[in-house]
């Protein structure tokens, strides 16, 4: 079992090596000629106003939470799909109930306005 | 000895072919865009402009490689490598032909989904570590967009798994001997393709790097080959989504007369061209439209698709 994951490890090492090699190569080959203006954060040609560590829209956070909720529900569906043909009617009804609960959750989120970007 | 050398040869071969293809795709995309937009595209360097790729590579390696003094250095340097490694890893389970594959996992499809979703880290970290407002907004947009569309991507593949009864990608291809899954699973295919466009941040969904509002989005502060690696990652992502579409919905290597590998490449190339055609055709969405479309249309439709497939299988349809 573990043996079958060995090629995955090899491909991970090889691709990580390629990635690092490109980074090192570009560091070696590239020229450097810094000027004070070049060292500023880019902001359409003018001096930057304030830093980048500022508040951002809370919507992104809501999206993250929604993703976790729905993705975990998805994980419960994955094993069910593989044994579907053995569960017959029982499995089907169970899935219907599960999807219904998911839909109720989606409608609730929708009505609460969590999906709106204003 | 042979059982050690052959897998290593395949791994090295697959990686080399993929990286060459990813570089070559830049030329293919520019030529096809030129064709569809009624202009030439690159045609000066070498025959048909093919050497343009090589020239661009030499240029990009010798460009000034600057690490911003205000950036989070280690994260900034490593972020472009993460996307390449994550996408290359997902190719480990793709069966190119009955004999050509890196590894045959029984959880193949889950592995692909898991690995391809790691690339969101690369984008979010790149945007965050640059300490630039445009990068931050681009990275945030990319993260929210990619995690949202991942949900539907997973859901749209459930129908295929139910029809094949397995997560093993080889079994899924074998199960399509009689009929390609794009016919019984047409909604699943459409949802998967749209989600794939969003996952690779291609044009109708390229909000993270929308150049007229965010300069270059999450890679604003990147230059030289680090910038190039994001592009290699993007093109590898396109190849990955196209290859997955072929494996899951269009019978993988199955086809008459021609050798299986060739069939696989022809089909994959067709979907790569579709990606480029979509870019040549569609305008960019607004961000609220993008998110609303995902959660309010794609999610209910993919759930409905799941229920319909379940009903039909139960009724003995497939």
From TrEMBL, chain A:
Keywords per UniProt: Cell membrane, Membrane, NAD, Quinone, Translocase, Transmembrane, Transmembrane helix, Transport, Ubiquinone
EC number: 7.1.1.-
MF terms in GO: NADH dehydrogenase (quinone) (non-electrogenic) activity; NADH dehydrogenase (ubiquinone) activity; quinone binding
InterPro entries, alphabetized: NAD(P)H_OxRDtase_bac/plastid, NADH_UbQ/plastoQ_OxRdtase_su3, NDAH_ubi_oxred_su3_sf
Gene Ontology CC, one term: NADH dehydrogenase complex
UniProt keyword annotation of Cell membrane present: yes
Main localization of the protein described in the UniProt heading: membrane
Subcellular location as annotated: Cell membrane; Membrane
Membrane-topology descriptor: Multi-pass membrane protein
Pfam families in UniProt: Oxidored_q4
Catalytic activity: a quinone + NADH + 5 H(+)(in) = a quinol + NAD(+) + 4 H(+)(out)
Gene3D superfamilies: NADH:ubiquinone/plastoquinone oxidoreductase, chain 3
TM segment ranges: 6-30, 60-81, 87-110
Family: Belongs to the complex I subunit 3 family.
The protein's role, per its UniProt record: NDH-1 shuttles electrons from NADH, via FMN and iron-sulfur (Fe-S) centers, to quinones in the respiratory chain. The immediate electron acceptor for the enzyme in this species is believed to be ubiquinone. Couples the redox reaction to proton translocation (for every two electrons transferred, four hydrogen ions are translocated across the cytoplasmic membrane), and thus conserves the redox energy in a proton gradient.
Assembly and binders: NDH-1 is composed of 14 different subunits. Subunits NuoA, H, J, K, L, M, N constitute the membrane sector of the complex.
UniProt protein name: NADH-quinone oxidoreductase subunit A
Species this chain originates from: Desulfomonile tiedjei
Gene encoding the protein: ndhC
Automatic annotation (TrEMBL), chain B:
Recorded name of the encoding gene: nuoH
General function of this protein: NDH-1 shuttles electrons from NADH, via FMN and iron-sulfur (Fe-S) centers, to quinones in the respiratory chain. The immediate electron acceptor for the enzyme in this species is believed to be ubiquinone. Couples the redox reaction to proton translocation (for every two electrons transferred, four hydrogen ions are translocated across the cytoplasmic membrane), and thus conserves the redox energy in a proton gradient. This subunit may bind ubiquinone.
GO terms (BP aspect): aerobic respiration
Membrane topology: Multi-pass membrane protein
UniProt keyword list: Cell membrane, Membrane, NAD, Oxidoreductase, Quinone, Translocase, Transmembrane, Transmembrane helix, Ubiquinone
Name assigned to this protein: NADH-quinone oxidoreductase subunit H
Membership in a protein family: Belongs to the complex I subunit 1 family.
Protein's organism: Desulfomonile tiedjei
PROSITE patterns reported in the protein's UniProt record: COMPLEX1_ND1_1 (PS00667), COMPLEX1_ND1_2 (PS00668)
Subcellular location: Cell membrane; Membrane
């Amino acid at each position: 079992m573990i043996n079958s994951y060995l090629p995955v490890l090899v491909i991970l090492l090889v691709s990580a090596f390629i990635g690092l090699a490109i980074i090192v190569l570009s560091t070696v080959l590239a020229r450097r000629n810094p000027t004070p203006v070049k060292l500023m954060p880019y902001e359409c040609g003018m001096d930057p106003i304030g830093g980048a560590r500022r508040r951002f829209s809370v919507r992104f956070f809501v999206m993250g939470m929604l993703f976790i909720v729905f993705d975990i529900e998805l994980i419960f569906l994955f094993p069910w799909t593989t044994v579907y043909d053995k569960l017959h009617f029982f499995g089907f009804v169970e899935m219907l109930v599960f999807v219904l609960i998911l839909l109720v959750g989606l409608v609730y989120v929708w009505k609460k306005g969590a999906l709106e970007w204003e | 000895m042979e059982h050690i050398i052959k897998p290593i040869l395949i791994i090295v071969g697959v990686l080399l072919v993929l990286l060459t293809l990813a570089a070559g795709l830049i030329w293919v995309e520019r030529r096809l865009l030129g064709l569809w937009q009624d202009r030439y595209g690159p045609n000066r360097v070498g025959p048909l402009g093919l050497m343009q790729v090589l020239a661009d590579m030499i240029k990009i390696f010798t460009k000034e490689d600057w690490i911003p003094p205000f950036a989070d250095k280690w994260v900034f340097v490593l972020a472009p490598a993460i996307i390449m490694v994550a996408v290359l890893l997902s190719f480990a389970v793709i069966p190119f032909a009955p004999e050509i594959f890196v590894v045959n996992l029984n959880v193949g499809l889950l592995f692909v989904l898991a690995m391809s979703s790691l690339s969101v880290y690369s984008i979010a970290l790149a945007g965050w570590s640059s300490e630039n407002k445009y990068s931050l907004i681009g990275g945030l947009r990319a993260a929210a967009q990619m995690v949202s569309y991942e949900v539907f991507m997973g859901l749209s593949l459930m129908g295929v798994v139910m029809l094949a009864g397995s997560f093993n990608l080889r079994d899924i291809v074998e199960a399509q001997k009689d009929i390609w899954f794009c016919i019984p699973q047409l909604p699943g295919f459409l949802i998967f393709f749209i989600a794939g466009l969003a996952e690779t941040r291609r044009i109708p969904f390229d909000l993270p790097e929308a150049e007229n509002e965010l300069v270059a989005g999450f890679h604003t502060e990147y230059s030289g080959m680090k910038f190039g690696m994001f592009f290699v990652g993007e093109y590898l992502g396109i190849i990955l989504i196209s290859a997955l579409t072929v494996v899951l919905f269009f019978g993988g290597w199955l086809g008459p007369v021609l050798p299986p590998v060739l069939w696989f490449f022809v089909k994959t190339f067709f979907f790569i061209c579709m990606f480029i055609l979509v870019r040549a055709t569609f305008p960019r969405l607004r961000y609220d439209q993008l998110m609303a479309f995902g959660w309010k249309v794609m999610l209910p439709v993919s759930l409905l698709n799941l229920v319909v497939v379940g009903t039909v299988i139960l009724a003995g349809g497939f």
